[in-house]
């Protein structure tokens, strides 16, 4: 319960600072506060849905490999990724879910979206895709410990870019925009799907933004699954 409360206050404080900036200066790159609230809520909820099955569990991969725990998992007649993910399901992400849903519930009636069955399905599919993307990226980092023996430092890099994904990428320089839309696809965690729903232009993608936002998550999940299998084949055990 203390973790729920502390995480909730931490996120709320960060979002409140953005609210002060946006209301004081009238917007950020053409995004008003209600648009940003939608973006932040989507980002928080999508991350929580993906990370609750992966982050806490796979963040420990370096220790799991070093201590020989992964060797014992390989002797069990279960999928190693599924065992790690579902045995360590983290309910502490409940505060993220509450905050994300709350922000979206407040923002959705106020944003300029022509709601229909199609846009509702687009929102649900994009959110599912964002959750898959989060889980896939964390899985890729965790699996790297099977090959490199070290992976925790990569999570630091991950969260540096994850922080950027809270904002409209149009406020960044063109090279960084391209990077967040291609090699490091953090823009699909919130910006691309939300911009597509709001009818805002998305650099490089244009009218394809909505379709790409839905497709990125499943594609990333397939890539992560393939890399996990590859890493297991390369894994030589704690003895080297």
Summing up helix and strand content along with how strands pair, one would put the structural category as mainly alpha
Note the main sheet: none
Oligomer: single chain
Taken from the alpha-carbon principal axes, the silhouette is globular
- What are the secondary-structure elements, in order, as H or E? HHHHHHHHHHHH
What is the radius of gyration computed over CA atoms, rounded to a whole number of angstroms? Answer: 19 Å
Uncertain spans, ≥5 residues at pLDDT below 50?
none
Average pLDDT works out at 88
N- to C-terminal separation?
41 Å
Question: What percentage of residues falls in helices of 4 or more residues?
Answer: 55-70%
Number of helices: 12
DSSP E strands, number: 0
Strand content: under 5%
List keywords for this structure.
240 residues; 12 helices; mainly alpha
Written description of the protein model:
- The mean pLDDT is 88.
- The longest helix is centred in the middle third of the chain and has 32 residues, at 117-148.
- This protein starts with a helix and ends in a 6-residue tail after the last helix.
- Helix 2 runs antiparallel to helix 7 (94-107).
- It has helices spanning 2-25, 33-51, 55-58, 61-66, 69-73, 80-87, 94-107, 117-148, 152-164, 174-181, 191-198, 209-234.
- The chain has twelve helices and no strands.
- This is ABC transporter permease.
- InterPro entries: ABC-2_transporter-like.
- The chain crosses the membrane at residues 37-56, 81-108, 120-148, 169-188, 208-228.
- It comes from Rhizobium lentis.
Offer a quick outline of the entry:
The protein is mainly α.
